[in-house]
């Protein structure tokens, strides 16, 4: 088994999404800190170039289709047939881009929940149909992962609470074993759940975790799914707590003899073309300097 470290690069360096130079410099910096996985979004026609760079430098990639979904209001659980079909077609274009980039996995979200809770089960059934179609389309060598989000804070995702996410993953994995969950500590907090409890429950269908912070005070401008610095004031977590989550995850997955990728996700909101990269690296030396042995 192995534990790999990752960075959500195009959150930390937003310019890396459109500028190859920034992407390459950011990815190279992360490799120097023993990170081996780079998570990114890039427009479909530029994804291959990003992937070529990663492959030539011995790095793995995760294509963040969720970024496209969020910006384009593309909801795979939509009860509107036209909207759902459009979301599935968009997702297939993302899979094509991920294939061109030769990444190890592609990350999606479920889409926004219906306003009426009475429609949640119908939306769930639609989501099963959407992902079944995507799993048939995606290469069997590529992992397709779903990242659960909050229900009532910011993204308003159908999936959603950890128990529901596990149920959904098990439903899809009956036929498609290359489907997994990506759990996010920020989203877990927004769902009102305990991070370690949720991660322990989901470990049976999860091999990828985002370490991320959030603020849940409504008056705060960073309220919701903004992924602030681990050191931010009024955050649900601090750096020490996320370090503890990291250490517990390593032990948990090694005991289960399962592979795991652990990523840091911070969204830069200023700081020039290299955002908060230096601050994030210096703020969490336990992540950006520690070498994890493979067994």
From TrEMBL:
The record's GO molecular-function terms, alphabetically, read:
isomerase activity
Which species is the source of this protein?
uncultured spirochete
Ranges for domain Xylose isomerase-like TIM barrel: 34-213
Listed A to Z, the keywords are: Isomerase
Top-level taxonomic group: Bacteria
Is the Isomerase keyword given for this protein? yes
Q: Per its UniProt record, what Pfam families does this chain match?
A: AP_endonuc_2 (PF01261)
Keyword field contains Magnesium: no
Q: What is this protein called?
A: Putative Xylose isomerase domain-containing protein TIM barrel
Q: Which Gene3D superfamilies does the record associate with it?
A: Divalent-metal-dependent TIM barrel enzymes
Taxonomy of origin reads: Bacteria, Pseudomonadati, Spirochaetota, Spirochaetia, Spirochaetales
